[in-house]
Specification:
CATH architecture of the largest domain: 3-Layer(aba) Sandwich
Number of strands: 15
Strand order of the largest sheet: 6-7-8-3-9-10
Structural class: alpha/beta
Low-confidence stretches: 1-13, 322-336
Number of domains: 2
Largest sheet: 6 strands, mixed
Mean pLDDT: 86
Strand content: 25-35%
Helix content: 25-40%
CATH class of the largest domain: Alpha Beta
CATH superfamily of the largest domain: P-loop containing nucleotide triphosphate hydrolases
Number of helices: 11
Shape: elongated
Radius of gyration: 24 Å
Oligomer: single chain
Order of helices and strands: EEEHEEHEHHHEHEHEEHEHEEHEHE
Length: about 325
């Protein structure tokens, strides 16, 4: 299996798109524990990048280094064109960070939390109030603005957290597991917020424990394991690293089953279940080829299912089956 897939994101005309975040050989250790061991990344501007990995893999450490909260032991990194070691103030001026744990102060209202952030960004009073009002409306928090933040639901606190992050109009946002602990509806609302941010040209660096989330949102995904990038690419590129895709045909008529087994090559038979399994990448071209061969022989299957490797399979293969993050249960087969 290839160790990584790293095609360059290109603009029209074949020129590489500008990098919002780039690292070369990034390293960090805590005592004898190596957390990051030579991490190379290139994240195009205006995209969503997802960093996956088991608990303790170093995802949060990477975010803390790139947001200048801690220093790296080695390697180089640039964020928004600024070197994190020599120009940390330039990095901080360009980014926003939402950590695993909410930065919301529950003792004051949502509006007061926003105005506090405006003061920290040295916005004039009038501009601070204007930005606060706009963001509270954008994140559907206007009605709750004068209530103590301690009374907010988990989803509301997360929305307020990101609204506070946006007060300084950052062009790059680090979201460290932003939907952990949220119910499915709140998680989907957060996904929509992230999509809107990117549509405005913001770059989002996302760490997540939910593989479905990375599959849904990310333009590119990297899997971090044992301090190294085990694989990187689009979700589809990563899925193609993993063998095991197949089409399964089921029949109720034994004669049709036998005829299909003769017409189709490279099949695995289950005579008891009257089913055939054909290796396939699930592409439209391969499906058409299988169906055309059945049609040419006058055979009709009673059920066709397609299995393609998903990010669960990628994660299992790259990090081991005992370290899969928490996932909602989802079927891997599409019945057609």
């Amino acid at each position: 299996m290839p160790s990584s897939v790293m095609p360059t994101s290109m603009r029209s005309g074949g020129q590489p798109s500008p990098a919002a975040v780039s690292t070369i050989g990034l390293r960090k250790s805590y005592g004898d524990k190596t957390v990051l061991d030579g991490v190379d990344l290139r994240i195009p501007a205006g995209s969503v990048f997802a960093l996956l990995g088991p608990n303790g893999a170093g995802k949060t450490t990477a975010v803390k280094i790139l947001s200048t909260l801690i220093t790296a032991d080695g390697g180089q990194a640039q964020v928004a064109g600024h070197d994190i070691a020599t120009s940390p103030d330039g990095v901080r001026a360009a980014i926003g960070v939402t950590g695993q744990f909410s930065a919301v102060d529950g003792l004051i209202t949502g509006e007061e939390n926003m105005l506090l952030m405006a003061d920290l960004h040295h916005l004039p009073k009038g501009e601070g109030r204007r930005v606060t009002a706009e963001l509270l409306e954008r994140f559907d928090l206007t009605e709750a603005a004068t209530k103590p933040a301690s009374t907010y639901s988990g989803g509301m606190k997360r929305r307020l957290d990101i609204a506070m992050t946006l007060v300084g109009n950052p062009r790059i946002i680090f979201l460290d597991e932003p939907t952990t602990g949220l119910d499915p509806r709140s998680r989907h609302n957060m996904w929509q917020i992230i999509r809107e941010l990117v549509s405005d040209g913001v770059t989002v660096f996302l760490t997540t424990q939910y593989l479905e989330e990375a599959d849904e949102l990310a333009d590119r995904i990297a899997v971090l394991n044992d301090g190294r990038i085990a694989a990187e690419g689009t979700a589809e590129e990563l899925k193609r690293l993993i063998p095991g895709g197949h089409v399964r045909l089921r029949f109720t008529d034994p004669t049709a089953y036998q005829s299909a087994a003769t017409a189709l090559r490279e099949t695995s038979r289950d005579d008891e279940a009257l089913s055939l399994t054909i290796p396939s990448d699930g592409s439209q071209r391969e499906l058409r080829s299988i169906l055309d061969r059945l049609d040419a022989s006058g055979i009709e299957a009673d059920e066709l299912t397609v299995h393609t490797p998903d990010l669960d399979d990628v994660f299992f293969a790259l990090t081991g089956p005992t370290t899969l993050p928490n996932q909602p249960n989802q079927p891997k087969e599409n019945v057609r």
